[in-house]
Write a structure and sequence with these properties.
This protein is mostly helical and 299 residues long. Helix content is 75%, strand content 0%.
Length: 299
Amino acid sequence: MTRPENPTLGIGLRLLSGVLFTGMVICVKILSDAVPLGQIVFFRSFFALGPLVIFLMVRHEFPSGLRTARPFGHLVRSFFGAAAMFTSFASVALLPLAEAILLAQLTPVLTALAAVVILHERLTKWRALGLAFGLAGVLVLVGPDVGGGDLDGRRFLGIGLGLLTALLTAFALIMVRSLTQTESPGAIAFYFVIASMVGGVLTLPWGWAPPDAQTLALLVFAGLFGGFAHIAMTLSFRHAEASRLAPFEYVALLWPILADILIFRLPLATSFLFALPLVLMGAAIAAAERKPKLEKPQP
């Protein structure tokens, strides 16, 4: 039975997920100077687990929906997803939020290319064009630093981690594409959160910071914002087609820009302003190339 669409609600939920995601990365950036990376990843995942479980229970998918015939597939997807969370949070710590999130917009381009390598899909002119725009944007972003001869190691590490995040996320999405043929979205999300928690706990021997009340509150909010952002995004696809929601993927970049300006008092670099349209154009081309009608995700 086909669910009636409600595009206005779907778009509203997609915009809400962008705001919640920005709330999460703001918390992560504030925490990054005082709390080890693995500890942030653990708490973000742990406090996202509650909203996710409640959501699955409301949908009558917990615990029955967690049964799987493809545990290895979940393991691989969760590994790439958890690794991407580590590199993403590290990039957020080293770069302005707007730049870190902009680099993540390369994910559609790299996903299209990963599909060529892993799934043996055809390398189309659209994918090649999307890659060209994306790479041009990255070169524009780093160009002034290279040309000036005064290399900022911290900034370059952040950009490298941002690019690695996009690549790891692309591999994770390829696995999600494969898993959704037989597995429920709830199970995919649940096992990813568990894997991220395990990854965070494994860093415990390197030392965690005893949190004070403010730090603990930020850790809790990072998890809640992240958990509810995922739920809002999932629900958005129940009410509107992916193609209709696609343009609002890029509206989500507005909130980190505002956070940099209003909260962290960071000016927008000229190189970022020139790189922004190039990267977004590459992402839009790569996303728009997938024209065949696909079934709307039914989480």
